[in-house]
Structures are given as structure tokens and as C-alpha cells.
Amino acid sequence: MDNYNSADISAFKDVWVFCEQREGVIQQTSFELISEGRRLADELGCKLYALVLGDNIEKQAKEAAGYGADGVVLCESPLLKTYTTDGYTKVIVDTVKERKPEVVLFGATYIGRDLGPRCAARLHTGLCADCTHLDVSVPVYQEFLKGASTLTPERIEGTSSAIVMGQQHDVSHDLKMTRPAFGGHLMATIICPRFRPAMATVRPGVMKKAPFDQARADAAEIIRPVINLTEADFETEILAVEKAAKKLVDLIGADYVVSVGRGIAKDVEGGIKLGQQLADELGGVLGGSRVTVDSGWLSADHQVGQTGKTVHPKVYIALGISGAIQHKAGMQDSECIIAVNTNPSAPIFEIADYGIVGDLFKVVPMLIDSIKAVKAAK
Questions:
Q1: pTM of the full predicted structure?
Q2: In total, how many domains does the chain have?
Q3: End-to-end CA separation in angstroms for the chain
Q4: Which of 117, 150, 288, 345 is most buried, taking the most CB atoms under 10 A from its CB?
Q5: Do 74 and 206 have their domain in common?
Q6: Averaged pLDDT, groups of 10, the chain, 378 residues long
Q7: Sign of torsion over alpha carbons 165, 170, 172, 173
Q8: Does 84 share its domain with 208?
């Protein structure tokens, strides 16, 4: 790969999405990224490829293509059946050097967070971690800023360029990667103007999965790079894979999410109990704002927001949550939002479909009774 030069930007083309598989099953986060990658590839005017590593997984690889990819870069070897940092890094780095994609995306999972930065370092390029929004098109990015930032129109208009190495730089062809910064109090947009590929890990649940297209899956181009991998490339040996079950809250997959916020402070235990009862009646799960996690009232797997989980339920009920930008960004795409807050000027009401101004400790019991009555009448 002597001709590889990450600074030769013109030599790079196409968008790649690393599709994570575990025991031969492509993870849902990968399908979300393929769907988002389709939009980015269209904005760049290039092709989208799913990058799949494993053993005997062509069928699963084609499934990934059904969510929007033009083709699959399929790397198969018995040594790739189970994830290892050494094996996957070497194969991805070798393949990227050979085919030179312009953008490479990873899910911000345990595997993606381990693999992405290591690949970026070996490829001498940058990586933006834990992204919650991606854009290439400047007009599309500026529209995003109008709704998701407090920047003035003049500042937003100025985002079409940036100062790079002391020179004005047109960002119209750069991947604009937005992520939380300073503990979620600010949002930062990062570009990688001097090197390629631009690389990012993307938080699970923030991108919407497109409908599956069997025809696209069947027609997907399969590219099989030559795999140069031996046992000598591994510093570790997998002796066994042991699974430990731990019950976590499945916020991302829930149709109904009931979240509690600072409004439960006067009776934390009672507020959580009410929120859980309401969630149980709806067949949903309990979530919380950042303050409930920072205060130790709920565990981190309950947190909704930029620094927590992004959810898209059928119904999202916010109890005692004011609606800071950080929290709204994690739930504003819910199909129906119901807010209960004592403050009629709370920002949460700006995006709520239904708002109730009142004390959640009085309102929630009435909601629970109403739901029970409806169920009993059926």
C-alpha cells in the first residue's frame, strides 16, 4: 500500500458503513447507519457500501444492503468469525488503503468505539466520536442548525466556510459531524478537512432506519477484497465467549416511554414509582432526564437525551421535565409527546403535542386511573 496518502483527498471516494455482526447477526445500529449513509452518499454524489467482516455471512451482508447500500465490501475468513481488535483492525485498514473510501462510519457500540479510533490512527486521519447528527450539504446542515442551535442567522450563514491552517476553507464537501461537548452542555460540529477518510462513530438510535428493500438486497454488488490475515497477526487468542445477562432498560426499542425529571425532587421515590406505574399501564418503560441520573435517582441506562439515549417511541410522556435542548434532542422525533409541568413557560411545551400545566403528583394518578378505566371498558 505504498501509494496510500491520507492527505491526497482527491483519491478518495464513496461512503462506507462498518456493519457489526455478532454470531452472524448484523446489529440494528448498522441498518440505521446504512440508511443515514444513503443520504450522505447522495449528497456527495457517490456510492454507499456496507463493510462486513465475518465468516460465511454473505446472506447477512446482502441484508445490510437492503437498507440502502449499493454494494457490500465482504471480508470473510474463519479468523474473522468472532470480533478481535487485532484481526478486524488489520483487515479494515488494509481494505481502506486499497479502495480509499471518503467516509467510514461505525456504530458507537463497544465494538465500534474500540475499532474506529484504532483504524483512524493507523490510517493517519481523524475520527469524531459519539456523533448524533451528520451532514455533507451545507444548506441541509444550516437548516439543522436553525432548529437545533441558538446561533443567530448571521452565524449560521457563516458556517459555509471555516479557517483551516490559516486559510479560508470551503466545507461544502466535508462531512460535518455533530456531537455533544462539555458534558452535553454544548454541541460541537467537527470536520476533517485535511485528511481522508473522514471517520465517525455514531450513537445507536439517533438515525432512522429505512424500510427494507429486498430488490436492492438481491441486486447488491459484492466486492471481495483479498484478505491477508494469519494467526501471527493476533496478539491475543480467544479461548471462549462467556455471556453475562444483565437486565437493562430498552429505551430505544420501546413504543411508550415515560420519563421523569427534576419535578420529582420533592418526593423522588414517589415520583419514580408514579412514573413506573404509568409506564407499566402503557406497556412501556421508564426513562429520565440527565438530572435524575446525575443525582443518582435513576441508573444511566434510563437517561434520555444527547448524553443518554435517543428515542423514537409512539408516545413519549415527560413528567416534570423542563425541556432543555440536550433533552429535547433525544426525544423530539417521538410520534406523540405529552408533557406535564407546573411551569406554563417550560420549553418542553414548545414541542409537545399535548401539554398539561399541573403537579405531576396530582396529574399522573388521574392518568393512571383513566387508562385503567379504558382497559376495563374493553
A1: 0.75
A2: 2
A3: 68
A4: 288
A5: yes
A6: 85 95 88 94 95 91 90 93 92 96 94 94 95 93 87 91 91 92 78 96 87 89 91 82 67 88 93 94 93 91 84 93 86 91 94 94 94 88
A7: negative
A8: yes
